[in-house]
Design brief:
Rossmann fold, alpha/beta, TAG_lipase, about 325 residues, globular, Lipase domain-containing protein, signal, two-stranded antiparallel sheet, Lipase, 9 helices
């Protein structure tokens, strides 16, 4: 099982080493406990064989992905949008003149839990937005290795859907923001890649670590005009190394204040993001090295973590310290 070092100077060394050398990321041990919804973990054997026949069958299904639209006109009851179904989109509340945010859940999850309701509420209260929750539970409900194998197909389908949506309604890619947690972060990357990196922004919320350190399908800086990652459980269930244009490491990126479980640490990424959308209150300081991140000695320029700014730009690694509770001010 993956074990975490929570106190003492050794945690600084582990952070710096993992950031500098992804081969040292312990998330590629064979057996790990991966956080899922309901404040629990699910065991995963990283050397298990994917369920190839089942995956092939589901991937051919027309409803491999479901797209649930929430707007200020229907903040509580979603409207179903469908690829190659004009009426489902044109008769919905989708407005091509406002931003579109696509929220993507992780393994063993679904859109009605965790980040989905939290981010939907934050985004709709901030401004009029087309919030689309991706439902890929048919594949996320499989064993971890099979779900990892499905990520490229799921992401490609998301990209094809957004291409169709844009062509049908005129909604520009420059108004689109893909937001994914854990495996969902890598799905967002694959979706953006399908669109040639044209979407305005991708936010990866503690991108999944197990089986992703050397995986060419993982989230990359080229997947959108601006790609940001928020690392809250790095070096284990999340990735500690840089994967985006800007990588934020709240409290060093391994353990979060007030958290005593991996579920809490992993989920804190989307809680911080939700707070940043509402308050834009979490400010990172640029670091010149991984060691500065680990030692909390960053002295560079400031950049806000998260928020919903579609013109946001930046590069590098950033550290910030947060509080234990919402809105997480230090």
């Amino acid at each position: 099982m993956v074990k975490f070092i929570e106190h003492g100077l050794l945690v600084f060394s582990v952070t710096a080493i993992c950031l500098a050398n992804p081969a040292n990321n312990t998330s590629d041990n064979r057996f790990v406990e991966i956080p899922v919804e309901g404040n629990r973990t699910q065991p995963a054997d990283l050397e298990a064989k994917p369920q190839s026949e089942l995956l092939d069958h589901i991937k051919k299904s027309a409803d491999i992905n479901k797209y649930l639209l929430y707007t200020r006109q229907n903040p509580d009851s979603p409207q179903m949008l469908k690829l190659d179904d004009e009426d489902s989109i044109l008769s919905s509340n989708f407005d091509p003149n406002v931003p579109t945010a696509v929220i993507i859940h992780g393994w063993q999850s679904q859109p009605g839990y965790g980040l989905g309701p939290l981010l939907t509420k934050a985004l709709l209260e901030k401004r009029s937005t087309n919030v689309i929750l991706l439902d890929w539970r048919r594949l996320s409900a499989l064993d971890y290795v099979s779900s990892v194998s499905a990520v490229p197909s799921v992401g490609r389908h998301v990209g094809e859907f957004l291409e169709y949506l844009s062509a049908l309604t005129g909604a520009p890619y420059s108004s689109m923001h893909l937001i994914g947690h854990s495996l969902g972060a890598h799905i967002a990357g694959n979706a953006g890649r399908e669109l040639g990196g044209q979407t305005a922004r991708i936010t990866g919320l503690d991108p999944a670590g197990p089986l992703w350190n050397f995986n060419s399908n993982r989230l990359k800086p080229s997947d959108a005009v601006y790609v940001e990652a928020i690392h809250t459980n790095g070096g284990g269930l999340g990735m500690i190394q840089k994967v985006a244009d800007v990588d934020f490491f709240p409290n060093g990126g391994l353990q979060q204040p007030g958290c005593h479980t991996t579920v809490c640490n992993h989920g804190r990424s989307y809680e911080l993001f939700a707070a940043s959308v509402t308050n834009n209150n979490l400010i990172g300081r640029k670091c010149s090295s991984a060691l500065q991140v680990a030692l909390d000695s960053c002295k560079g320029s400031e950049l806000p973590l998260g928020n919903d700014d579609l013109q946001k730009t930046g590069s590098g690694i950033y550290r910030l310290n947060t509080g234990r509770k919402y809105p997480y001010n230090a």
